[in-house]
Write a structure and sequence with these properties.
By secondary structure, the protein is α+β, with helices and mostly antiparallel strands. The chain contains 9 helices and 5 strands. Helix 2 crosses helix 3. The longest helix has 22 residues.
Amino acid sequence: MTIKSWPDSERPREKLMNQGSGALSDAELLAIFLRTGTRGATAIDIARDLLADFGGLRPLLAASRHELCARRGMGDSKYVTLQAALEIGQRCLAQRLLRGEPLTSPDRARVFLQGKLQDLPHEMFCCLYLDTKHRVIRFEELFRGTIDGASVHPREVVRCALKHNAAAVIVAHNHPSGVAEPSAADSALTRRLQEALAMVDVRLLDHLVVGDGEVVSFTERGLL
């Protein structure tokens, strides 16, 4: 039986229009992007299989083109659609952060940076540059490393802060291992960055370490 033959209350598109997107399951939302099924399997059947195989939406959307396209009912077109949907979501978060409202707590930066960094297979160090009212001026990815770490140069962070005329900076990096607990090297780097930025009257507000589903704030820990 195809989805078109289902009652309206059970069809994902009609259900979304009548009840809102929050009423849909992960499989139903995913099926809307997949659009079509294959012989013997509806789009929802394929969506359920994908979620079961990959262990949820996050690992599914982080899967490589080769991994995803090898699954039943998938192909380049559907892979592109899912990647485009993911990028739209990330850009929406970025616009919310960069629209000029002050950052009054680590929470807003945490959500944005978690979306950017938590599924990367390599280590990435990035910066949020803020003005005197703690409004975001710019977000930049500065250093990219391997799963063993990234080489971060404080002088480059200082140079970029001055270029953007920043009054304060929030730095962040991810741990591809999934463990967000800061290392001794992370603490040492934070002290070096704080000292280097202080020399040009720029305040280091926080250092966020992004793991698998967790973000540790140096400020909240009392380490900064």
